[in-house]
Sequence to fold (459 residues):
Amino acid sequence: MAEMMWAGRFSKQVDAGVNAFNSSIAFDGRMYRHDIQGSIAHATMLGDCGIITREDSLTIISGLKEILADIDSGKLELDPNAEDIHMFIEAELTKRLGDVGKRLHTSRSRNDQVAVDIRLYLRDEIEEISALVKELAVTLVKLAKEHTGTIMPGYTHLQRAQPITLAHHLMAYVWMLLRDIERLSDTSKRMNYCPLGSGALAGTTYKTNRRQTAELLGFTAPMPNSLDGVSDRDFCVELNCALSLIMTHLSRFSEEIVMWCSWEFKFIELDDAFATGSSIMPQKKNPDITELIRGKTGRVNGDLVTLLSMLKGLPLAYNKDMQEDKEAIFDAVDNVKLCLKTFIPMLATMKILKENMRNAAAKGFINATDCADYLVKKGMPFRDAYKITGTLVARCIEKELTLETLPLEDYREMTELFTDDVYEAISLETCVRERKSEGGPSPDAVKEQIALAEKALGL
Fold:
């Protein structure tokens, strides 16, 4: 077993089982690029500040770039027996450069090193996830533009409630996704402060230039407190919160897709490339993607609980418990990206069964509110109109009719305010078209929403 970098204090090697338990390279190895990026900035600063010679600084930077190229090409493989990615790269650098490589860690601790690595890594991941969420929003906007006139029932309590359009329904998810993008952006802004230079917890006696390293790494500024610099993982929690909300939105939509695919609804049909069959029932076409997304939402939420539980009892500053941050937040990031990358093409290729949506909207008396409003517009108090309409619905159920097919004489038995024009007033097309209030389902109102969303998306 290779000697640990910190072995001077110890008289014997760490037990192999303890070393395996303590090691994190299996999951933090993915940050090799960001670890090298941080080390290059640190080495640059050391040379510029005269803490190490300019020649040693340039040699270290060159060596780090060669290690990065070798890892990228596959020429250099990560050692699974290494304690972590930081020690692996430093050991490799020392192997290649000798004593010069040993100078890299001057005025730095693994505590501030890992803190900067994970910020750099998650900053890149936020950018990728934001792009995917935007792509999903754009896909929904495109679908909405095609279906401003596609009538369907809107639901409360999963009961048919009032007529809307598919475009109106889809745009509700667009606004959720736009909020998700804002949350990711806010998280990125708050986490974009550099912990490098905080040392183990109390800074360093060397005259370093933390503003230089922050600038080289694209951070807004150095973190103002060294204790907070090494112990803060709020950004992991905050990002996981944002990811949990993204998954919650995907899960809610997935639940609707599952229902809409069923024969009981049959509002849509998924493309064969995005559905699976049964091992025993040849007629089945299962929406497994959406079911998996529902399941993975619980997993991402579990990652959030892991982070909160890991942090809740930690005294300042760094504690080994914080190693658990990476597996949780990496798992959340990976699963959100996986779900988005699968969900987007599934939506883009699904078939909308407009007629089935329209037929469903024709049932369930979802124009009852419009019937009551018809009487209100003729001067009747709403509560009286509400009661009359409820009585008419009961009569329709008794006669197995709908409000559209109920004879006019039945209407006029309740009040003479009803005339022939009631049928036009309660037609589904009228019900949708007249809901012109801002944010409503009328084609004009939805087109206004689409225009606002396109502006927000930069389209």
The mean pLDDT is 94. The two ends are 57 Å apart (CA to CA).
